[in-house]
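Supplementary Methods S3. Complex input for the zinc ion-bound model.
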Amino acid sequence: MSESDAAPSSSENVAAEAAETNQTNNAPEKMEEFAEPDTKRRKISTTVKIIEDKRYKLEERLGGILCCAVCLDLPRSAVYQCLNGHLMCAGCFTHLLADARLRDETATCPNCRVEISKTSATRNLAVENAVSELPSECQYCNKQFPRNSLERHEETQCEERISGCKFSRIGCPWRGPLHESRQHETECTHPNRTGAEVMDALQVMDQKLADERVLYDSIFDLLAFEKITFNDLQLKPYRTDEFVHRLFYETSRFSAFNNQWVVKARINNSQKDPTQSSERDMTYQLILKTKATTTLSIYYIMLKGPFGDMKVQPRIYKHDFSELENEGPYMPLSLPDTAECNRLLAAKTINFRLIMFLSSK
Ligand SMILES: [Zn+2]
Ligand SMILES: [Zn+2]
Ligand SMILES: [Zn+2]
Ligand SMILES: [Zn+2]
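Predicted complex, serialized as C-alpha cells:
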C-alpha cells in the first residue's frame, strides 16, 4: 500500500531515537569543563538584583537561540540540524520530509536551502539537553522549574495544582488547590449522606464508565479494519483577511488511502471575537482535497502523537467523503479545559497524530 510508506513510518524511528537519548544525559560532566560560566557567576553574585536581571535576560536570549528555526518554539523532543547547523524540532523536521515526499522533491533546510534527509541531518544533543534545563513556569504556582522536571512537578508535586475532594466518588463536586483539599475534606458533608442520597452520584459514575467502555470497544473494532493509516501533522496558525481578523489553523496536505487531505481547526467555532469569551475550545475538520471516485467512509481519531503534548481525549468521528461532500463537519477537539486550549494557542504550531480508518462497507 502506498500510504504505508509515507511520513508515519519514518516518524516512528524519530520517536524511538528521542526516547533513547533522554537516557544518555551527559550534561553535568560537560558543565564542569567550562570555566567561563564560573567567572560570570562570580561577577553577578554581587547583588541579588543583578543576578535576577542577568539570568532573566540570558534565558530569554538562549530561548531565542535554541528554538526551532521553523516554528520558533523550544523543542520538546529530539532536535535536528542541517549540514550548516540550522536547528529544527522533530515535529518540523518530519513535517518537512513528509511535505517534500508529497511533492516528490528533496527536502531542503528552510534557512539555507541545503538538502536535508534522514541521513544528512543530525541530532544535536547539546541543544536538546540545554533546552531541557531552561526554566519554564508552573501553570499553577507560577514558580520556575527546569523543563525536564516541570511535568512531574505539575502532575505530582505542586501544592497549588487543582484537585478534587476524596469524596468525589459519592458526589462531592468540590475542586480547588491541593493544599486546601485537606481542610475541605475534614468539613465535607458527603461522608454523612445516606446510601439513597449517594445513589445518583454512583449512577453518573456508572454511566461514565459505560461510555468509556463503548469508546474502547469501538477502537478495537476499528483496529480490525483492513485499511488503516496514520500521519503525524502540524496545525499552523493563519489569519483571515476579513474586516475582523480571525485565527484559524491548517495543516499542509498529506496523503492517505491514495487521496490528499488537510485538517483545519478553529477556536470557539469561529465566534466573532473569541477574546471576549473566557471559555475556549477548539474544533477541527477533515477535508478531502482530491476528487473522490467513490464514497470514502472514514473514521478518524486525533491523538497527541510523538511530537505533540496536547492533552486530548480520544474521540472517534466518522464522515462519508464524496465529491459533493468533501468537507467533514467541525468536530470538538476534546481538551480538558480552557487553560489547555490557551496553552495550545500560545505555542506556534500544534503537533498531533491523525489515525484514519477506511470502512469497506
Ligand atoms: Zn519546529
Ligand atoms: Zn540550514
Ligand atoms: Zn507549581
Ligand atoms: Zn468534599
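Residues 165, 167, 172, 174, 184, 188, 190 surround zinc ion (ligand 4) (CB under 6 Å). The domain at 2-34+67-149 is CATH 3.30.40.10 (Herpes Virus-1).
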